[in-house]
Amino acid sequence: MSNEVETAQDELIKEFQFLDNWMDRYQYLIDLGRRLPELPEAERIDANKIKGCQSQVWFVASEQNGRLNFRAISDAAIVSGLIAMLLRIYSGRKPQEILDTPPNFVAALELEQHLSPTRSNGLSSMLNAIRSFATEALQAA
Question: What is the mean pLDDT of residues 55-81?
Fold first, then answer.
């Protein structure tokens, strides 16, 4: 039985399959990033910064009714698109589902082959942060 995280990954993979080439995919990522809601200046602080990203990335997690909600923004267009993908897959999900579900979309979309090494590291850092928030939420429960 698939969970919400798997379902969100599958939907994202299907969307990307409609895009013929990587120029279209990059453009789609940039468009996704442009739709991210603004992050208030008060939350753009060092404590919310993701280490390991070449561009600046601020990531905020909160828990409500046993689900984690994420808000994030970057100063870079493609990274903002990656954030938008991550939020779509992981925000509003249960911490255990996040931890139980490998990020299969990374391989399925061939992100590692098409992102620069620094963006790839940034994506890994963001995925690690999400898992870390989920682990903390479970330990606090």
Answer: 94
pLDDT digits (tens, 9 = 90+) for 27-42: 999 999 999 999 999 9
> Could you count the other beta carbons within 10 Å of the beta carbon of residue 4?
16
Annotated active-site residue in 53, 72, 111, 115: 53
Domain holding 28, by residue range, is 4-140
> Distances from the Cα of 121 to the Cαs of 54, 62, 97, 118, 124, in angstroms?
8, 24, 23, 5, 5
Cβ-based neighbours of 102, under 8 Å, separated by 6 or more: none
- CATH assignment at residue 118: 3.90.1010.10
User: 140: which 2 tokens?
Assistant: 């606090």
Domain total in the chain: 1
pLDDT tens per residue across span 73-117: 999 999 999 999 999 999 999 999 999 999 999 999 999 899 999
Query: Is the full-model pTM beyond 0.85?
Result: yes
Exposed e or buried b per residue across 114-123, where buried means at least 16 C-beta atoms within 10 angstroms of its C-beta: ebeeebbebb
Tokens for 12, please give them: 């994202």
Whether residue 53 lies in the annotated active site: yes
